[in-house]
Amino acid sequence: MSHQRPSKSTRREFVKATSTGAAVLSTGVWSQSGTAAPKSANEKLNIACIGTANQARFSIGNVGSENIVAVCDIDANYLARAKKDFPSARTYADYRELIEAEGDKIDAVTVAIADHNHAPATIRAIRAGKHVYCEKPLTHSVQESRIIAEAAQKHGVATQLGTQIHAGENYRRVVEIIQSGAIGDVTEAHVWVGKGWGGGERPKDGQKPPQTLSWDLWLGPAPERSYAAGRYHPAQWRRWWDFGQGTLGDMACHYMDLPFWALKLRHPTECSAMGPSVHPETCPLGLTVHYQFPAREGMPPVKLTWYDGSQIPKTVAGHRVPGSGVMFVGTEGQMFADYSRYRLYPQDKFKGYEPPKQSIARSIGHHAEWLKACRDGSPTTCNFDYSGALTESVLLGNVAYRTGKTLTWDAKNLRAIDCEAADQYIRKEYRKGWEVV
């Protein structure tokens, strides 16, 4: 299986394939009912879309059956295309203006923009009482994830992180098998993705941005820097610390989601990371992260290891593995899984294995689940309580890497014990007017 993210056509096929079935019955923590006036099953939601191109276009396509009443993009070319798709939608370049102006006209917001703008957009929408669907990772810093999760709970809005594969049938079957005890007590989980977002040096000479690009708005909360064609927008921002979190930030919310769900993980107690020398501007092209999670709900402590880019293994637990996947190591066997398949080891032992009776219902579709929740307060499986904790853990790996320390993690107080150097990466500073507090 390729380690690249699914293509647009693949995503559309995936959503179509998971768009029918019963309401989801997950083992996760549910979002609370929305505070907005409930909608009838046949009444369309009024939705504002922040971000309109690439992954955002895919997201809009999955909510396009509702009323798209406002669209926002810092790129005038992208915005014009969205306006063509939705002629009656009002247009904005600044999502802060959109949320303020549309506050009494919309029910919900989708956020599909660069990572560093996720939290500033999402927190403003939540505090305006709007339901939110946000692409992964939920935020750009550990602290932002906690702020967003607590705000969503306080305001009682329906939320969903854009980890669409969570709605797939394979992940659900893997969770059932692991939680049935088929491979015994799981003490290790290994997660790897062959992609490498990183490397490069900051351009020395700046350029004037094209007239169609609102560069200052694209920077948003990030420190000011000059535009450089082809280096940041579009598509290259993930490799820069000011805007993304490298491969870990890009892919771990998809792949670590599976062990988080199956093993009922939440906050690690320890985290360390290894990779090339830390670069002040760009993320590493290969990273290994070790997390230690405590015992929980009758499950033993578990060590989770993440590998990406140049550091992915060729074998895990003695088995040759493809370029991306997850390996659970238990006291009675091992289990490999990726987006679409799973395999139990030793193969001789599990020949003829019958999986447990299905207990997690087929998803109605990842976006559809959120739209239903916006209407009636029903649960979502990747709400910001669950996905906020997932994102915190994911991003903590980069904190450990950038400090070069083994972090003893105090999740309650969001601090690394006896490592003050970590605080600058757990939290972040914002340009005036873009704060997340």
Walk me through what this model shows:
This protein is an alpha/beta fold and 437 residues long. It has 2 domains: 8-166 and 365-385, NAD(P)-binding Rossmann-like Domain (Rossmann fold); 168-198 and 242-360 and 391-423, Dihydrodipicolinate Reductase, domain 2, CATH 3.30.360. The chain has helices spanning 8-17, 55-63, 76-85, 95-102, 118-127, 142-155, 169-179, 215-219, 246-255, 257-262, 366-376, 384-403, 423-426, and strands at 46-50, 67-72, 90-92, 108-111, 131-134, 159-161, 186-193, 270-274, 286-293, 302-309, 315-316, 319-320, 324-330, 333-337, 342-345, 407-410, 415-417. The strands form 3 sheets. The chain has a 9-stranded mixed sheet with strand order 15-14-13-7-10-9-8-16-17, covered by helices on one side. Strands 3-2-1-4-5-6 form a 6-stranded parallel sheet, sandwiched between helices. Strands 11-12 form a two-stranded antiparallel ribbon. Helix 5 packs parallel to helix 6 (142-155).
